Each structure stands twice: as C-alpha cells, then as structure tokens.
Amino acid sequence: MASSPSLFASDEARRALVDVAGDGAEVRFDEPMARHTTLRLGGPVDAWVAPRSAEALAHLRAWCAARGIPTRAFGAGSNLLVRDGGIRGVALSLKQLGGVRRGEGPEGANVSVDAGASTGKVLSFATREELGGVEFLGGVPGTVGGGLIMNAGTTLGEFTNVTVRVDAVDERGAIVTRAHDACGFAYRSSAIPATDVVTHAWLRLPPRPRAEIEAAVRELRDRRKAREPHGVPNSGSTFKNPPGYFAGRLIEQCGLKGRRVGGAEVSPVHANWLVNADGATAADLLALIEIVRAAVVERFGVRLELEVKVVGEDNA
Fold first, then answer.
1. 14, 28, 40, 188: which one is catalytic?
2. Is 237 known to be catalytic?
3. Rg (the chain; Cα; Å)
4. What is the pLDDT of residues 116-174, one digit of tens each?
5. Is 101 annotated as catalytic?
6. Which domain holds residue 81?
7. Which of 30, 63, 79, 96 is 20–30 Å from 253 (CA)?
8. 307 part of the active site
9. Residue in 6, 78, 118, 237 annotated catalytic
10. The domain that contains 256 carries what CATH number?
C-alpha cells in the first residue's frame, strides 16, 4: 500500500492548524518521525504539534475530530516502530507537559506528574524527596504517558503499583479521569484506550531513605547494562515474554542472535532486542520480526506478541 497524501498540503490548512494549536505551541509539518523514535527510523507525519497545556491539547483534538483528522500522542518514542510511509494526521507531543511536584491528591496520592515528564525525571524527583516505589523506572526509558498506557516496569515493579488516578483526553477532545482499577493494568498493557492521550497522573509513593533508593536503582541498572545492547538505536524489548517463557531465550535457542535483514539485526547481546544496526528501514525490521516469530513458532509452538507498537503506513 502506498502512503497517502498529506492532510496539510495547502497553506490554508497549515495556517488553520497553527491557529488552533494555540499560543506557545510548537508546530512542524512533514516532520520525520525518525527524529522522534529511539529506533531512529520511520517516515514523516503530516503535522507534529506540541501544545502548551492539557486544555490546548483537548481543544486541538476536538477540532481535529470534527474534521476527521486523526490524532495520536507520541512520547519519547522508546517503544515505537513507525512504518516507512509515515503517519497521516497529527502527532501530538507532550514535551511541554513535563511537570513533577508534590501535592495532596486522591486516596493518599502525594506526587503529581504530567504525562510528558521523562521517567528519569520522575525517578530523580522521587530520589531527592526520599520517596520510594518508582525505583523500577531506573530500567524504563520514555515518558510517563507511554509508561502508563503499557504499564511499563521491571523486576522492581511497574506503574500499577504506584498509580492512583490517570487523566486523559479522548479522541473527541473530552477530558476523562480514571481511578486505578478503571485503568485495567495488566502485564505490559492497560485498559486505557490507545486512542486516549494521557495528560496527567497522581502517584502514591511511600517514604524511603535516599541511600536505599539509589542502591536498588544502581543494582537494577548494573544488571541491565550487563545484558542489554548499548550504542545502537533500539526500542528496548521487541516482544512480550510469553507465559512461562522468556522471549529472548526462545529466540536465542533458535540460533537467531546476529540475524539480519538489511540494516535490522537481532542483537548479539540480547536476542529480544531487534535493533537498527546500520541504517535500517521499518520494512527491514518488520521483516526480521516475522522471521523471528516464524522460527519460534516452528521450534516451540509459541507465538510471540509484540511489545513494540507499530503505527503508520507502508511505502509503495
């Protein structure tokens, strides 16, 4: 399938989007998504917009919905594979919504976080304030919004353990608030619709001495550093661990470490990391994903489910 024409090809359409995005918004047209994903690949989005506030974001989504223009949020792009034909519509960036602060919230929540805040920023804040519960973020890249939607985590915990409430803007531009149980957190997933844009969350973090936090994070990072690839564009784990298995071990036992398609490679360091080793295209990586899946099914009868999210259109 060939990629479709841009929805903002005319000067009039571009001016209208800039106006509705509001004061202080950053707007770019035909923006390469390779600049906004940790895999460093993917075609252009018609428009990339970073609104200044959650209210401006809601107004923009409502305006786009009324005109049939698709919108979707993108955080740090650490769990994202954009196809080579790019994305039609508007990519919403939360880079201007990055606050982290203490406060009194619902059900004993004591930390307020905006969805555009990086996981590293949240962990640093909690460490300074001597608040525990988010040590797992030492092994989780990206932003809070994406982390909440996929219930990101490590062996030290995951977002479900600390989240009290999540605020979002739905695809019509309506503001939606969900208590913890309504979020439907599960292993690397949640019931928060993929069409929602998470804007804010309340966390409940217990007191913990700074030295203990730093020791736990250091141990986690040392373990991950020893077994994960570095210095090469990647999206982290490509596949979820199937029940009772580790995806990386299944792939390694199929003899696929180092297997390549074009510039995409099954990392020789960790087999569940499919990386952009040398100028890969999205098509390269998608082809490699299918090779890996087929090999694991043939040998073990296990179908690997993607952890990385695939979006966009193919080139011709």
1. 188
2. yes
3. 20
4. 999 999 999 999 999 999 999 998 889 999 999 999 999 999 999 999 999 999 999 99
5. no
6. 11-93
7. 79
8. yes
9. 237
10. 3.90.78.10
